[in-house]
Design brief:
By secondary structure, this protein is of the alpha+beta class. It is 41% helix and 25% strand. The strands form 3 sheets. Strands 1, 3, 4, 5, 6, 10, 14 and 17 form an 8-stranded antiparallel sheet that branches. A 7-stranded antiparallel sheet has the order 9-8-7-2-13-16-15, with no helix packed on it. It is elongated and about 95 Å long.
């Protein structure tokens, strides 16, 4: 171990002993934990949600023909319009054309790859997540089982899944379907006020090599064309959304269209297929429940700022800084040791606070409607949750370092605290009620942008992304620490 490393470790131990002996240090760390947990729990208790739409969505354009007994439907989806992330185009076996009839469907979506749905959307199997047209799909019934297959080239097939009990009659309707749900569009109606509206969309898909052959599915590898029947009994039906309780009925979907050339079908259609939490229904644009449990960090900043500033200014106020520099003449090393101790202490306290806040708030949120199937059940080890929790603790540690640096630069406790409160609390609050542009600018270009690290949902009102915002705070902190190192080496104690 080098001499400089030994000296730094000695300085860190000295700063830790010094900081631990100050009564306000423990109080500030405990206050951070208490405030983060308390505000997180209160936010969870005050939040309520419920899905106000139909219990089942079942309206789309259906190109079909009767299929008795075992049957295999195969098609190459050569093109699909990106009308919505959850637009659906694919193959279907269905008991009838009435809305709400039992069905099994295998589909391609622009934003979520291959999906397979059954039993009215209550069961979903996932295929290749990155699949996009052109792509092959195959749906096969054998007895009471229906199996979905997918292929990139029409020769080598992979199983998506098997539905063992479909509820389909002996003679079902087999064919192609296209659906495209309404998409939510948001706009700013004023400072802090976002208004959302629904916009109807129309999906379009081109199917080639369409076949509907009697018999069970072929082997997992083989040609896409299975020797289809050439009978021209295909017809287009607009499956109509079944009526629901008052206030839940959706607007009528636009009529579908069909243009056929040989075994190539161009189909357009609107509507959707699924149930809440399945097939994208009510999932896109939902509330960020993880970020909500960590909302207490905005109040926890008060304790963190005070701790970071006092770690330096208290020594200037009591003149003990001269003794510190006499014992450790290397001023840069002293500041580095302080930074390590303050950042580590705040990070550990913040990590405990964020983890406890999430774990305690989660069951409260579920009781208030934020639960499966629309809001998936996530544990603390889920990658998104873990990034938000650990990242938020790192956000608090960076704020503590920024406060330490400002304390070195200003040297006055009151002046440093007022300056930091103005930048981190007052300006964001004023911008939030002043104008949309000012609010977005503050959220992207000032140190408070670092709070975006707790986001797990890409919402319209988010000013910036998680890592972009965190990088902004890290840049401000690095600049402030650089200025603090430079000034401390040139000033008198």
């Amino acid at each position: 171990m080098t001499t400089s490393t030994t000296s730094l470790l000695r300085a860190v131990r000295a700063e830790w002993a010094k900081l631990r002996s100050v009564r306000s240090t423990g109080a500030a760390l405990l206050a951070t934990v208490a405030l983060v947990v308390l505000i997180g729990v209160l936010t969870a208790q005050g939040g309520h949600t419920s899905y106000g739409g139909p219990a089942r969505l079942d309206g789309f354009a259906f190109v079909h023909r009767p299929a008795a007994g075992d049957v295999t439907v195969t098609a190459q989806l050569t093109g699909q319009a990106d009308s919505a992330p959850w637009a659906k185009a694919g193959l279907m076996l269905r008991s009838g054309t009435a809305g709400g009839s039992p069905s099994v469907s295998l589909m391609l979506t622009p934003g979520h790859g291959v999906r397979m749905q059954a039993r009215g959307g209550t069961e979903e199997l996932t295929g290749s997540g990155g699949a996009a047209a052109p792509y092959w799909l195959r749906l096969s019934r054998s007895g009471h089982e229906v199996t979905g297959w997918e292929s990139a080239d029409g020769r080598t097939w992979s199983k998506v899944g098997t539905v063992p009990d479909t509820g389909l009659p002996a003679t079902a309707e087999a064919g192609l379907f296209v659906a495209s749900p309404e998409t939510a569009t948001s706009r700013w109606a004023g400072p802090g006020k976002v208004v959302g509206t629904a916009r109807a969309t129309t999906g379009r898909a081109v199917f080639a090599h369409v076949t509907a052959a009697s018999g069970a599915a072929p082997a997992a590898s083989g040609a896409g064309d299975t020797g289809a029947s050439a009978a021209d009994s295909w017809q287009l039906t607009d499956v109509v959304q079944p009526p629901g309780p008052p206030g839940t009925q959706l607007p009528a979907a636009a009529p579908g269209t069909l243009h056929r050339t040989g075994q190539t079908f161009t189909v357009t259609g609107s509507g959707d297929l699924g149930t809440p939490g399945v097939g994208g229904v009510a999932q896109d644009g939902q509330d960020d429940t993880v970020a909500s449990t960590l909302s207490g960090v905005q109040i926890g900043l008060f304790a963190v700022i005070a701790l970071g500033v006092l770690a330096m200014t208290s020594e200037y106020r009591t003149r003990t800084i001269r003794t510190t520099f006499t014992v450790s003449p290397h001023r840069g090393r002293v500041l580095a040791a302080k930074a390590v101790v303050v950042a580590a202490g705040v990070f550990v306290a913040g990590l405990v606070a964020c983890a406890v806040s999430y774990v305690v708030s989660l069951p409260i949120q579920r009781r208030n409607g934020y639960g499966p199937p629309i809001f998936p059940q996530r544990s603390l080890t889920d990658p998104l949750v873990l990034r938000a929790v650990v990242g938020t603790a790192a956000f608090l540690a960076l704020i503590a370092l920024l406060s330490l640096a400002v304390g070195v630069i200003v040297r006055r406790t009151a002046a440093a605290v007022i300056l930091l409160f103005t930048v981190l609390v007052v300006i964001p609050l004023v911008a939030q009620v002043t104008s949309v542009g000012a609010d977005l600018w503050v959220g992207r270009a000032t140190p408070v942008a670092g709070a975006a690290i707790r986001q797990t949902q890409p919402l319209f009102e988010n000013a910036t992304g998680p890592w972009q915002g965190f990088a902004v705070l890290a840049a401000y902190t690095a600049a402030a620490l650089g200025a603090a190192f430079w000034l401390q080496r040139r000033r008198d104690a």
